[in-house]
Amino acid sequence: MSTLNNNSAAIKPNLYNPVHLLAFGFGSGLVPKVPGTAGTLAAIIPWLWMSELSLSVYLLVLAFACLIGIVICDKTSSDLKVHDHSGIVWDEFCGFWITMIMIPATWQWILGGFILFRFFDIIKPWPISWLDKKVSGGFGIMIDDLLAGLFSLIILQLILHFY
Fold first, then answer.
1. Where are the domains of the chain?
2. How many angstroms separate the first and last alpha carbons of the chain?
3. Is 141:74 a contact under the CB 8 Å cutoff?
4. 84-132 per-position pLDDT tens digit
5. Helices (H), 6-136
């Protein structure tokens, strides 16, 4: 990790490379300000399709997306020589999709999931902050967002249950 720098502003991916294209959320991570928020917004579009899947198929798609995310985030980070480039947003896609497991596809629930996920992803309460600092590579890029998604999912499910 010491060979990777953290000045991600000037370093651009090759969006003709399918690995970079996915890691950068189909280009949504290239917005100059708040790329994580843009990536989370972009994740809503495929989630609308995923929300129509049975729970078992949804979880299989999600598991595949998370596993492939470890690989594509690691490869893109390595290619760009930047650990956790701010434009890598596949982790936001997967974190949001975790947030939205078994959540109704209405604008109110989508907005609630979006706000909760962004809150936990930005604030990074323990143990998210610890994982963000201590775990490297593709898994390190992914794990903090996956856990933020899990925290958000728990809160949304509690609201859904008691609502």
1. 18-162
2. 46
3. yes
4. 899 999 999 999 999 999 999 999 999 999 999 999 999 999 999 999 8
5. 18-23, 35-50, 55-80, 90-99, 107-123, 128-134
